[in-house]
Specification:
This protein has 213 residues and is of the alpha+beta class. The protein has a single domain (3-205), classed as 3-Layer(aba) Sandwich (L-fuculose-1-phosphate Aldolase), CATH 3.40.225.10. It has helices at 2-17, 73-82, 94-102, 131-140, 161-184, 192-205; strands at 27-32, 35-39, 53-57, 62-64, 87-91, 105-106, 120-123, 146-149, 153-158. The chain has a 9-stranded mixed β-sheet, sandwiched between helices. β8 and β9 form a beta hairpin. α2 packs parallel to α4 and α3 crosses α5.
Length: 213
């Protein structure tokens, strides 16, 4: 999984430069069949190298690499065992953290949030690295691609690492929009009917994908 280890290292740098990861806080993984390439614990994520990405099996046993995997390994593995997903991104993004301090959910306030699965729930606080946190995140991801972690950060999942990164950036953007709106008044979420109307238009127009003339 040398290419996957390199991909994980590359996206960690991108996320750190975007302000979603800081220092050693956060972790990223990608799955290929029964192998998972995941950031090693204690690594500075903006500077992480492919050699600092560890490969484990779905039982958590190390199969490649010289460093222990992230302390949040069980969070990642719990998601992979429960869902057909290819990547997990866990950030300590500032706007995501801020919203998780004051709300129980990020409602859909913009149609670009719809790929995340609708409103984004805030998982109650559990200490990092615990089975309780891993289970709470797993359970909250049913029919969702993103969750917020109270007093902690955010998790996004997708069918590719690139898309999981896009979702992490999208979630942070949406949190910022919502928090900005709160300073001006009461945000007005999209209704279920409005969300369904956007889904219909998106499907009919093939919105979001390049189209030849």
């Amino acid at each position: 999984m040398s290419s996957e280890r390199a991909e994980v290292a590359e996206v960690c740098g991108r996320l750190a430069r975007a302000g979603l990861l800081i220092g050693t806080a956060g972790n990223v993984s990608v799955r290929v069949r029964d192998r998972v390439a995941v950031t090693a614990t204690g690594t500075v994520l903006e500077q992480i190298t492919p050699e600092e990405v560890t490969v484990v099996d779905l039982a958590g046993d190390v199969v490649a690499g010289e460093l222990a995997p992230t302390s949040e390994l069980q969070l990642h593995l719990g998601i992979y065992r429960a869902f057909e997903t290819a990547a997990v991104v866990h950030t300590h993004a500032p706007r995501a953290i801020t919203l998780g301090l004051v709300r129980d959910e990020l409602p859909v306030v913009h149609y670009q949030q719809l790929p995340l699965g609708g409103p984004t729930p805030v998982v109650p606080f559990h200490p990092f690295g615990t089975a309780e946190l891993a289970e709470a995140v797993r359970d909250s991801l049913t029919d969702r691609q993103a969750v917020l972690l109270a007093n902690h950060g955010a998790v996004t999942t997708a069918d590719s690492l690139e898309r999981a990164v896009e979702y992490a950036l999208l979630l942070e953007w949406a949190c910022g929009i919502y928090l900005d709106a709160l300073s001006a008044g009461v945000p007005r979420p999209l209704t279920h009917t409005q969300q369904d109307a956007v889904r219909e238009v998106t499907a009919r127009l093939g919105y979001g994908a390049p189209k030849p003339l």
